[in-house]
Each structure stands twice: as C-alpha cells, then as structure tokens.
Amino acid sequence: MVLLATGFGVGNVPFAPGTFGSLLAIPIFLGLPFLSTLGGATVGALVLAVAMAVWIAAEADAAMGEHDSGRIVVDEVLGMLVALAGLPRTAWGIAVAFVLFRVFDVVKVWPASAIDRRVAGGAGVVLDDVVSGIYANVAARLVLW
Known about the structure:
With 145 residues, the protein is an all-alpha fold. It has helices spanning 2-5, 17-31, 40-64, 74-84, 91-107, 112-118, 121-144. It has 7 helices and no strands. It is globular, with a radius of gyration of 14 Å.
C-alpha cells in the first residue's frame, strides 16, 4: 500500500515530493482521454478514485506510523486529476492547472485548511487536495476561457 501512496516511490524524492506527485498525474490524465470531458464517466471515476485514495492514504498512515507523511503523494495525484478534469489536453491547459493546483494546495483556502487541520485518517490526507483541485479547476477555466 505504501508503494501506491508514494506514487511508486515519487514521494521519496528528497525535495518537493508534492510537486512531483502532482506531475505524476499528468501522464495519467493524458492516458485517460475521458478525463478531458466533465461527463458522468469522469465524475464517477473521480469519485471512485477519491474513495480508493482515502483507503490507500489511511493504510499508508498506519504503515508509516505518521499522519499525512510528506512521502504520501496519492493525494496530490488525485487533486491534480481533479484540477485537470474537463480541461483541454494542451500544454497550456495542463500548465495552468498545474500551477494553480500547486498554489491552492500550498495556500489551503477554506475549507481545505479546515479539512487539513481537523479531519483524521485517509480522508484528512486526501480531501483537502480534492478541494484544492476543485478550486484550481474553476480558476483554470476562468484563465483558459
């Protein structure tokens, strides 16, 4: 489970593992063309992915003996996929979503900040990044259109 939580080792990078985790989402986005639309399949897949990421993060928390270890990047991967959902599959669209997601993930605009501080377990690891991904997605739409 730790292998999945760390993005197959990406989270072990000694600096900015969250940034590298966010970058890991880009080939996933490009490899799953349905993520470029914001239809039922995309929403369903993201809801399922959130549930899986919460479970993976909870298991990794227990295995690592630490809540929300910096090595866990499954939350950044998922948050970045939310940021990219329904956006154009262009270098510009991806770059805008990436920068905005990293800003929102670091700043933690409410309710992400409250989730980060108050929610325990895997949900606390993942859901603040999902909120940051939603903010980044909306902001990217404003920039791109």
